[in-house]
Amino acid sequence: MRVSASADPWDQPAVASCGFVVAFDRFEQEALRPLARRYFGQELKAIDDIGVYSCRATRTGRESEHARGLAMDIAGFDLEDGRRILVKAEWGRRDNSGAFLRAVAGAACRYFNVVLTPDSDRDHLDHIHIDLGPYKLCVTR
Question: Distance from the CA of 13 to the CA of which of 24, 55, 63, 76 falls in 20 to 30 A?
Answer without folding.
Answer: 63
